[in-house]
Design brief:
By secondary structure, the chain is mainly alpha-helical. The chain contains 12 helices and no strands. The longest helix is centred in the middle third of the chain and has 28 residues.
């Protein structure tokens, strides 16, 4: 566990030693603001004091740029520069390397999500005070975004473990997340059970209840299952390098 936390801390701090963290946070808040205030009419046209648009479209905003950029370098850059071999020969387990890299990236996304908490504070508290806001749906929505982020980062880490190119890792992660968002739309054109199966696997379908303030254990298990599966795949890919 100490190895995991050490790698996670090193990874998290490395984001702030470069412009990456500041660009990601600023661009992320800008994109999420665009989705909240302007996309499809924006907050001001829904005529009710609700924050569900942030959770409805926030995950899509994270998928379009933020998470692919954060995860593309996690293992791909280490492999390209040759430092991965040095890292895995240190007295740390492969699982600690994977979990450390993962937790470092997740920490940066959580900082971004923490920044978005200023939106409801400013809008429904001080200084605008637009009206009362039910905290239950807000907390459920943030739980959904955190679970989604955990799963999406695990996907990006797995992709980064497969390639030495950051560009390839970015593109594959971007496409994979976009497809997972739109499986429900694709399912509308598929017959019967196949269409229903695609809708069940869709990110958007599993985020809907969180955005409405509902916490369904099936949706929680869905995101946790993706997270666990992708982390195992990333670990197996890293482990296989020892035998190649």
């Amino acid at each position: 566990m100490k190895g995991t936390l050490a790698i996670a801390g090193r990874e998290f701090r490395s984001y702030f030693y470069s412009p990456l963290a500041y660009v990601v946070i600023c661009v992320g808040l800008f994109l999420l603001g665009i989705f909240f205030f302007l996309f499809r009419g924006g907050f001001w046209q829904i005529d009710r004091a609700s924050f569900d648009r942030m959770f409805q479209y926030g995950a899509l905003g994270l998928s379009l740029f933020i998470i692919p950029v954060i995860t593309m370098r996690l293992l791909a850059e280490e492999k390209r520069s040759g430092t991965l071999e040095m890292l895995i020969t240190l007295p740390v387990k492969d699982t600690e390397v994977i979990l450390g890299k993962y937790l470092g990236a997740l920490g940066l996304v959580l900082v971004l999500l923490l920044g978005t908490a200023l939106y409801p504070i400013f809008m429904f508290g001080w200084p605008w005070n637009l009206g009362p806001l039910d905290p239950g749906p807000v907390l459920a929505g943030y739980l959904g975004l955190i679970l989604f982020s955990a799963a999406a980062i695990a996907i990006g880490l797995m992709v980064s473990a497969f390639t030495e190119s950051q560009t390839v890792a970015f593109f594959i992660t971007f496409v994979a997340l976009l497809i997972l968002h739109n499986l429900s739309t694709i399912g509308e054109f598929a017959p019967g059970a196949i269409g229903e199966f695609l809708r069940v696997l869709s990110f958007d379908t599993n985020l809907q209840k969180f955005a409405r303030g509902l916490i369904d254990t099936r949706n929680v298990i869905y995101f946790l299952s993706i997270t666990g599966l992708c982390l195992v795949m990333a670990f197996r890919t890293l482990e296989s390098r020892k035998w190649s």
